User: Fold this.
Amino acid sequence: MSALPILSPTAPADADPSRIISPEAQWRPRLDRLRRVFAEGERWIVCFSGGVDSAFVLAVAVAERGDDVLALTAVSHSLPDEEREDCARQAQALGARHRFVQSDEMALEGFASNPSNRCYFCKSELYRVAQAAALDSGASHIADGVNVDDLGDHRPGLVAADEASIVHPLVQAGLTKADVRGAARSLGLDVWDKPAFACLSSRFPYGTRITPERLDRVGTVEQRLKAEGFRQVRVRYHGDVVRIEVRPVDLPRLVTEPLRSRIVQVCKDVGFLYVTLDLQGFRSGSMNEGLQQP
Assistant:
């Protein structure tokens, strides 16, 4: 395997965050603790979004419990078709039992109106669906892919998780994002370096109403950018204005012709009047920057 940036104070500033891993001496004992988490309970449901965190949890759970584990993927307008297809592919590759279920967060005013705790309503709907599936399948535990690093961000969904008694196996084992990537790579998971992906509803400033049509607009532009080879992208909705985030190292390429003109045309085709490029580049949760953090 090729050399990778190891998580350390000397990691290159422009290193692809999806390819930064922890040293094995750090994640190996934590992986062992993760395996022991699944010694409890008879049957498990893993809320499976297709990202590296939930894929890693699912892989370890299936290795430890086999058919006692059910992967559950919630389908809604916030989940792009390509992500849904990737969930099916991964679950099949892992030999996991897998079920798609429809979630209807768009019907919740607390979600559609997009307050700063929007994620609470989204996750509450997910866990409602998961609890129904647990009751149907006889599962005693519901797990998600929250890792230790997630605890330091603005995540109202964690409140919903507490209310629904959701288990955070990665947190229990002490695994960070870099730990997960390193351990997932060692297990041969091809998504070990999959860029972080948040549901499309995170592309809107708080207070901006979320609609299926608006989700489709940002999703179409993101899909095109990925097809053009940009691994890590966010397309942020600001009414008539679209704000595109890519990694700083990718900024020069995006403004080079004829690619620049192609992306501008895609944005215009879906209804944006003005197309902007964020010079700060991609950063996860940029819509949280205006919030007052406790």
Q: What stands out?
A: The beta strands are 44-47, 69-75, 97-102, 141-143, 233-238, 241-246, 274-277.
